[in-house]
Amino acid sequence: MARQDLLIIDDFALSPMSKQELTDIFEIIEDRSTQSSTIMIAQRSPQEWYDYINDPLLADAFMDRVRSRAHLLPLEGKSLR
Question: pTM of the prediction?
Fold first, then answer.
């Protein structure tokens, strides 16, 4: 039976994260990627996440999980909120 929960990650990539924190968030996203919904809110565009993660292998794996079933809703204007 599929999980029916929702995880909201607000302000992703707002401040630096350690390698272990990035690995942990990757594992959370990987575990949920085909079973549950996740909303990620960030001030940075997904294209900037590669530089933020600063590990090409981890960034590719992370972005693959995030983008595989994603619906991007870019906001424009003075405020992104």
Answer: 0.79
